[in-house]
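ok, trying the design again with the full structure, not the truncated one.
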């Protein structure tokens, strides 16, 4: 597997140096809730992938968080009605977000020492605070279901830093070993939200406002997620998108891998500041490889390439690959 396998960390290897989350590059799976990828969401968790994606709709009719690719009023996913470890891998599927979180909590009991997993949540049509499905309700649900197994913004601040940006620049991220048993939530605006001409207050800005306000109120511990700046761009994309008061609350960035590679953007900006950079559709970087089942060597080469381009996570639809491949971790460039 070459360079991409250098930091694969064997469970129980107490002698291996544990790098910080900000110093590594790992592999994630796009739309891991899709039944065509994994029969059950617990199998996505078993896959070894360091990032799993959920598409979520705020259903204002039923006041539920729906998990689906294209149905805002129903659930279409591999999350099952399982709340205990014994119930996993066999219950009825098509659950809402609470059900997916129940699966994660049950699976976490079986694997309390698992490497950190980023849970990327695309709010397809955004939050709907008027229907009781806003950032505060999202945080409440995650906290109720997962409790202490979430790595939260407050943990990065550590009682020392006044913004997430200051903490990231100081490289206050924990080591991967310290994050064992933890989930890290990333929030991005959704495709429906972005195409809605009447919606000018997207998920990222709304959650950025929440982080700022929670910190000012002395309640930053209530926040469960990190909002991401969406879209590959040159320089610091926060300066043209957000009010100055919330720019320092963005330390996750998420964009198309091929755009980052082909654009000539100086992606060293992200690793120099210890930001988390997620590069999507990694298969499309030239030379393109399979979006579903490339060879192990091709995945390793793509991981090594994007690590040198300062990615923290690379994602594609590689659910067919083995845990040995999907759990690969290498040194960030």
């Amino acid at each position: 597997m070459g360079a991409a396998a250098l930091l694969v960390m064997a469970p129980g290897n107490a002698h291996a140096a544990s790098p910080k989350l900000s110093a590594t590059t790992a592999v994630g799976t796009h739309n891991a809730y899709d039944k065509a990828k994994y029969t059950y969401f617990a199998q996505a968790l078993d896959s070894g992938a360091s990032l799993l994606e959920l598409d979520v709709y705020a259903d204002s009719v039923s006041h539920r968080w729906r998990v689906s690719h294209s149905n805002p009023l129903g659930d279409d996913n591999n999350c099952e009605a399982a709340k205990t470890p014994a119930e996993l891998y066999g219950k009825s599927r098509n659950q809402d977000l609470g059900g997916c979180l129940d699966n994660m909590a049950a699976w976490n009991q079986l694997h309390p020492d698992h490497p950190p997993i980023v849970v990327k949540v695309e709010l397809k049509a955004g939050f709907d605070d008027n229907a009781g499905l806003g950032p505060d309700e999202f945080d409440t649900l995650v906290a109720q279901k997962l409790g202490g197994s979430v790595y939260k913004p407050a943990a990065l601040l550590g009682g020392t830093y006044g913004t997430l940006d200051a903490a990231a620049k100081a490289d206050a991220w924990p080591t991967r070993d310290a994050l064992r048993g933890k989930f890290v939530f990333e929030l991005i605006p959704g495709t429906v939200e972005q195409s809605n001409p009447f919606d000018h207050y997207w998920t990222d800005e709304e959650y950025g406002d929440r982080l700022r306000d929670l910190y000012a109120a002395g309640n930053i511990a209530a926040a469960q997620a990190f909002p991401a700046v969406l879209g590959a761009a040159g320089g610091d994309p926060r300066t043209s998108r957000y009010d100055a008061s919330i720019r320092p609350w963005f330390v996750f960035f998420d964009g198309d891998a091929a755009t980052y590679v082909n654009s000539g953007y100086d992606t060293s900006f992200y690793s120099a500041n210890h930001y988390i950079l997620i590069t999507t559709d990694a298969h499309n970087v030239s030379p393109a490889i399979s979006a579903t089942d490339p060879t192990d060597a091709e995945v390793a080469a793509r991981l090594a390439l994007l690590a040198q381009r300062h990615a923290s996570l690379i994602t594609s639809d590689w659910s067919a690959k083995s845990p040995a491949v999907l759990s690969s971790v290498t040194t960030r460039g």
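Keeping the full-length input from now on. The first helix runs from residue 41 to 46.
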